[in-house]
Amino acid sequence: MKLKRGLLMLPVLLILPHAAVAAEAAGPAATDPQAAVVAHYADLMFAEYEDALAAARSLQTNIELFLDHPTADSLAAAKKSWIASRQSYSQTEVARFYDGPIEAVEGYINAWPIDQNYLDYTAGAPDSGIINDVSRFPHITRDVIVGANEREGEKTISTGFHAIEFLLWGQDLSAASPGQRSYTDYVESSDGPGRRAARRREYLRLLAQLLADDLQVVTIQWTPGQPNNYRARFLTQPATVALAKIISGVGNLSSSELMNERMLVPFATRSQENEQCCFSDTTHLDLIRNQMGVRDIFLGSYTRTDGSELAGPGLLALLQKSDAPLAATLQKQLAGALLAIQTIPQPFDQAILGDDTAPGRTAIKTALAALQAQNASIVQAAAALHLPLNLK
Amino acid sequence: MKLAAGFLIFSWAVTLNATDTGTALSGGATTAFDASRNAFTLSARNILPEHRTDFYVGDSFFNENWLAATPVHSERGGLGPLFVSRSCAACHVRGGRGETPDDNLPPETMVVRISVPGQGAYGGPKPDPIYGLQLQTHALPGYQPEAQVLAAYKELGGSFADGEKYYLRQPCFQVADFAYGPPQTNLVVSPLTAPAVIGLGLLEAVPESSLRARAEQNAHRTDGIAGKVNQVWDNTDKKFAIGRFGWKAEQPSVRQQCAAAFDGDMGLTTPVFPDENYTAAESTCTNAPNNGHPEVSEQIFRQVVLYARLLAVPVRRDVTNAMVLRGQKLFAQLNCAVCHAPELQTGDVPGFPELSQQTIHPYTDLLLHDMGEGLSDHRQVFAASGREWRTPPLWGIGLVGTVNGHNFFLHDGRARGMTEAILWHGGEAEHSKEQFRQLPPADRDALISFLKSL
Questions:
Q1: Looking at CB atoms within 10 Å, which of A185, A350, B44, B97 has the fewest?
Q2: Which residues on chain A are in Cβ contact (under 8 Å) with B13?
Q3: What is the pTM of this model?
Q4: Do B10 and A171 make contact, defined as CB atoms within 8 angstroms?
Q5: Is residue B152 part of a domain?
Q6: Contact at 8 Å (CB) between A254 and A294?
Q7: Closest CA to B174 of B93, B236, B104
Q8: What is the ipTM of this complex?
Q9: Is-contact A293 A95, C-beta < 8 A?
């Protein structure tokens, strides 16, 4: 099965009446507690993707502004916007790991690790990458960027958050700071990286556009009031089937992705390139927002970018009915793990170094233990709710 | 055996009771209770706590892309310069099987093995002087892929005894655009799909003596079924050993299998195979950046091998369904079970109690069998002739559709479903195949139902 890019070509208008959300959620929700949780989850995911999409469009705008007038200030603004957008997206990752609409584009949005040399110059390799390879890629186009590599199972190596991160920050060569790419990489000059400034500008511009377009595809699938989208099917399937997907998303994010891939692997290998956001040194924010994403699905409460709160029945509401003590334990663990992750010293790529008594490693170990306890409770919660859940 | 409370898979209903859990637990105590698309991605359910970190690190390096080496050393660096894919999971998608391309498209989750007639080192296949033993169809920027491969098929017709027609698809892959000069004119080309990687540690744990004993039993049969062990070169112990892994049972251990894949498929050197996959004739490749010696550190390599050893086998479904039980009976009556052995016993694996002393249901004997001219790839691999193939394990086969979204089977994925796969059987399996062809449709369906329950 190939990733379907054709979706992006559909002309799409996003008109999102918030009233529709409330109306739809009030349907079966009123009578059946399981259906109420499922309906509220759909509302949460729509709100989270809507926020992530808005943040990605804002990133796109700030990147365009930077490319129009490359200065240290406009670069800083674009970076700030990337961080905000990345955080918004990290919150939504609870909706991965089942057949949700994110699966079709996740490889493009979240490709990791980035093959820096495939994209642009790196230390000691001034002519490497698509941006510098004029003979093989005479024009930088959307097709060049996405067509480079789109086999399933093999994440693309040239698109998404981390490709943009690399083009904004550059290689992270210093322990003390993130990557130090200069805005002058985007200003034409007769030698140095500026030789390819026009191509680099076009690449970055297309990446930002692609990212937002991909998030738009996902958002449309979660939008209320559409007869044939994923949300419509999600709400009409048996509630237990939907709940199994919901808990698979939170369980796998909390365990396989957050705890193992994003924390344990860098911790065990002590290797900087195993951290998620190695160019910007913002890995800790991914970790925090992943955990907040997990917590919010259990609590049924999400604080939107504009500060408003979307609250309703979450998984904990169901669990309280079948196993109240477990629900209380899990609620404490969700808060405790968040605190433990927030306590890890920054940047994360320095916290993983040293011997096991170093403050960074001690803090990560504490957070890993907190997540392990949380994951054990999530598995128990699935059993208590009679939902299948197998973690790696 | 205690089964997890609340075990329920929503896409199918399964009830397991005390009497039938035995044969349902395909991987013994390692068995995972999952029939979702993640069914081939789980650790052995009895994994030791002290193996978890290694498993998860191995998981990461199995799934994520490898990167081109840069002047700044990266633990994930060293890809290429010539390669087939950027990650293990690119072909073994979610731990599962690769698929075959449509007509006129390049294979992306397969490898294309090559050789020339004769014997190479230690009696193995003889490499082409320029292109070696496998075609690398991708390359880092600035380097040329060795060749381009395109799929092509020929339709063959046949019919069941009851008159129902069927069609089989004979692949004839085209290789063109050799980039480093012409290969030998008598080049043998064998496209192979990536098999599922579940339960490898268990298959490795079956004692050599029991494989030899099975081969010995085969030798006394009078019905033409005659399995034999492959004898291959162990590059770590520097001696011959029984082959267990690969379509021709050409690798003796999970460790060497992983190392061969790192080297041949991704251009990554390991402690087992310290040399890059290009030949001296491909001289431009020698300029490629290198990630050290070996490129995959001993520690990461060990963790990926542990991961491959401890990937769980999924539980069977519908084991008490009447149709499945009828199919299971037919599977035995048609002698399918002689080679696709329903039960093996593992021995003791030092350091891996998870894999030790398990009763497993892999539906393989790990032996080589002559499968007839129709399936021959004409490529000799140690003791395995072109017609001889290792019995592939059937555990998990019923979930390939769920995990990988296709049902392409056999070594080159030519079969579009289980029925076609059975109909391609020849040689030692000719009689079994013929009996299948004679079965009434209801019995054929029952047999397929049984296979789908694995």
A1: A350
A2: none
A3: 0.92
A4: no
A5: no
A6: yes
A7: B104
A8: 0.90
A9: no
